[in-house]
Amino acid sequence: MARSGYFHGDLRRALLDAGLDAARAGGPEAVSLRELARTVGVAPSAVYRHFASHEQLIGAIARRSLAMVADAMEDELARVPAGDATAWADGAIAAVGLGYVRFAWREPGLFRLAFRAHGDLEAAHDEAARGASGRTPYEQLERAFDALEAVGELPREQRPGAEALAWSAVHGFATLTVEGPLRSLDERTREALSWRIVEMVRLGLSATAPEPGAA
Amino acid sequence: MARSGYFHGDLRRALLDAGLDAARAGGPEAVSLRELARTVGVAPSAVYRHFASHEQLIGAIARRSLAMVADAMEDELARVPAGDATAWADGAIAAVGLGYVRFAWREPGLFRLAFRAHGDLEAAHDEAARGASGRTPYEQLERAFDALEAVGELPREQRPGAEALAWSAVHGFATLTVEGPLRSLDERTREALSWRIVEMVRLGLSATAPEPGAA
DNA sequence: GGCCTAATGTGAACGCCGTTCACACGATGG
DNA sequence: CCATCGTGTGAACGGCGTTCACATTAGGCC
């Protein structure tokens, strides 16, 4: 384990750290296996002792990024005033949404990488995607909706799928502003729109919806 | 111009067609410049007579895909019953949203490629992104909101940014179900959720929202 | 303490990729 | 008929992910 010059010590961890740095700076496309090996000072083939493929390397970095998303949501949740349960539930759903999009803006490279893991399914629900709070981003969302339902602000028939709807709105906004056609928005309007997004979600989910009409 | 065996005839068009096929089958990562040249029966370097780089090739294919998105939205709009203006406006906003997500499900490869064009900015607003109706996807959305506003169902102060919010919700849902953590949803729940998405957008935008509270 | 084994890192090679450049071809217009 | 210019060729470059035989070392076992 002592630095012998031949063995690295903790190559796996070092590769992930280097990968996070690279993705932070240049997004997913900047994370090349050979480049990471170079940064860490090791032959490219050595990487395969710890990851089966480039795709799995990316997947592992994606999980770490997701954990950071969960932490960002947790931080935002932590500053919701505790007092009233109803007020807290309202604040919580705003907090998780804002934490999500703000992470995307603060770390666009990591955010883009986090949702680029096609190979190993469901990285978002993986153990390694848990942050310091022990929760995945999705579970943070669930927590906020649990509170909302407990307080009677979320109709029972809206609950299944409610997370999916909220996640869609927030994720779409984050995506379009980070790497999509809305990426040229200035920070003020972005911030204002993100508030309206969570408001839209809350309003849209607090009522009973009719059945589909035609087609 | 006659097929001489040396000159191709319309290489640019042929490359785009081949690119659409490749993306349809394997998504953005399946569209390699060399592979396309091979399919068309031409040397890789010949591609550079028509596109400055691989990225611009992808960009051109992305624009064609966006045009197809606009067409899908147009098709869905066309089957909204015309009668009442209010009913039409309601139907229109549902139609554009559903057209969008249904295109994503029908052509996941093209959809994924369409929103991967980082290089040349604003492909979504480009001329080449117009479909048979002469409109971009974004303009289709605008059209539906114009109708909604004309009928008095969209408060004036909600209008600026309304397209961004609606687009976010719909795009996020499409993304998460096509290449994200929600991609394992079965078709029935997907379809049901997409209805609820547009309902959420309509409800969420039909009311006046309060100012942001704290932080 | 000295060996065996399993884990870990090396180096060279393979085929793919995007890109460049000097060159070949052929349609077109003076 | 010839010069020109747009279009396609072929070979080469460096970078990529991946593989495989081989080198090196840590740690357990006698």
As for the CATH topology of the domain at 66-205 in chain A, it is Tetracycline Repressor, domain 2
Strand share of the residues of chain A? under 5%
Derived from helix and strand composition plus strand pairing, the structural class of chain A reads mainly alpha
**Which parts of chain A are unreliable, with pLDDT below 50 for 5 consecutive residues or more?**
none
User: Assembly state here?
Assistant: homodimer
Mean pLDDT of chain A: 91
The total count of helices of chain A amounts to 8
Relative helix content of chain A: 55-70%
Cα gyration radius of chain A (Å)? 20 Å
CATH architecture of the domain at 66-205 in chain A: Orthogonal Bundle
For the sheet with most strands of chain A, the description reads:
none
Shape of chain A: elongated
Number of strands of chain A: 0
Task: Characterize the structure shown.
The structure is a homodimer of 215-residue chains. The first copy, chain A, is mainly α. Chain A has a domain at 66-205: Orthogonal Bundle (Tetracycline Repressor, domain 2), CATH 1.10.357. Helices cover 60% and strands 0% of the residues of chain A. Chain A is built from 8 helices and no strands. Chain A has helices spanning 11-26, 33-40, 54-78, 85-106, 108-114, 137-150, 162-178, 187-205. The longest helix of chain A is centred in the first third of the chain and has 25 residues, at 54-78. At the A-B interface, α7 and α8 of A face α4, α7 and α8 of B. The first copy, chain A, binds a DNA duplex (30 and 30 nucleotides) through α2.
